[in-house]
Amino acid sequence: LGPFATEADVRKALDALPPHVSGIKFRQEQSTASRGWWVYLPALPDRDAALDTARKLSDQGVRDYYVVTAGDRQNTISLGLFHDPANARRRRQAIADMGFDPVMHERTEQVLQFYVDYAMAKGQSLDWQHYLPGQSNIQASPRKCF
């Protein structure tokens, strides 16, 4: 069963399911999770070029941008962070329609995901949703016995 959102949710499953299964264990896995989308103009050669491009954006009515001033993205012009990729695509297209060449990039991070593996006797089934109410975000999938 999984992935569970938190270790506390796994503990609830580990408390609720043992009387109904023949074996149970907890595991965690590293996974890549999307953290949304970033729309930006790639780094320009220097600060003056970045500021010049920012002025051109402003001249065309764009007010919500940020010139990155330090780090490995210095002189990049950020045009927004979006949870919905459709919104990021609309933003990218709107800026492209003004004659710029924006990039849309998915932001990701490594996260832990939590699972509960359980064993059942042959022919036995488990209505886990009955014992774990409110866990509609998890799924059950068969695995080889442990």
Task: Supply the key terms.
4-stranded antiparallel sheet, elongated, 4 strands, alpha+beta
Task: Give a summary of the structure in a few sentences.
The chain has 146 residues and is α+β, with helices and mostly antiparallel strands.
The side-by-side strand order for the widest beta sheet comes to 2-3-1-4
The end-to-end span amounts to 14 Å
Number of helical stretches of at least 4 residues? 4
* Number of E strands: 4
Strand content: 25-35%
Overall, the morphology is elongated
- Quickly give the structural class: alpha+beta
Largest sheet: 4 strands, antiparallel
Measured as a percent range, the helix fraction is 25-40%
Order of helices and strands: HEHEEHEH
Kindly provide the radius of gyration, computed on alpha-carbon positions and rounded to a whole number of angstroms: 24 Å
Average pLDDT: 93
What ranges have pLDDT less than 50 throughout 5 or more consecutive residues?
none
Tell me about this structure.
There is one protein chain. It contains four helices and four strands. With 146 residues, it is of the alpha+beta class. It has a four-stranded antiparallel β-sheet. The model has no long low-confidence stretch (mean pLDDT 93).
